[in-house]
């Protein structure tokens, strides 16, 4: 009869080993792809298990942002007959009752001055926005919401908030707080790593930056697709 070894059997170390992090990421990515399916995988379809983690994070952020934007765009269009570009414009003015200078509004929206001018002309014509002299600089103009614009935006903003709460309803309070804090740290890092003015990176047009005559038709823009090069204009000799 053999004697039993009184020493306890060694337990596996719960801490991740050298290659466990990559394996976990690979398994999580594959599981997510199966859960989402071809219909919803979106921009993450081009992510591979052996891609650098930074690339996979970027694609996931872009996919989440694009998916949320698509939901909001569709609902704004079907419910209010408006666009996300117009909603964002009105939201900035709602937060500044005294109005904003055009260049400041353009900077807040991260679009070109021509884009803001096009939206302003449309909303002034509809009675939602008005131009007023800047009390600090008579050479400048401010734009601000009219009473009609404020009432119409309030109705849209209430539903917009409900839509976002439903879209992010799968996350608990602690998860949202943690995600918000991490994204804040990411934004600080991005601002510190920004290219100097005049570089190719800073001159790239943002998603909503369309020409003035197309400022209100950005719903079909593909944020994952680079802007198309313009065909040079050929002049006819006289």
Describe the secondary structure blueprint for this structure.
Blueprint: H1 20-36, H2 53-80, H3 84-94, E1 100-101, H4 102-109, H5 113-125, E2 129-134, E3 137-145, H6 147-167, H7 173-192, H8 200-203
Antiparallel strand pairs: 1-3, 2-3
Helix pairs in contact: 2-6, 3-6, 4-5
Strand content: 5-15%
Give average pLDDT, whole number: 74
Strands of the biggest beta sheet: in what spatial order? 1-3-2
**Number of contiguous helices:** 8
Order of helices and strands: HHHEHHEEHHH
Calculate the terminal CA-CA distance, rounded to whole Å: 112 Å
Task: Give short descriptive properties of this protein.
disordered C terminus, 7% strand, 238 residues, three-stranded antiparallel sheet, mainly alpha
Structure, explained:
The protein is globular and about 60 Å long. A hairpin with a 2-residue loop joins strand 2 (129-134) and strand 3 (137-145). With 238 residues, the chain is mainly alpha-helical. Helices cover 51% and strands 7% of the residues. Residues 12-24 and 200-238 have low confidence and may be disordered. The chain contains 8 helices and 3 strands; from the N terminus they run αααβααββααα. It has a 3-stranded antiparallel β-sheet. The protein has helices at 20-36, 53-80, 84-94, 102-109, 113-125, 147-167, 173-192, 200-203; strands at residues 100-101, 129-134, 137-145. The N and C termini lie far apart (112 Å).
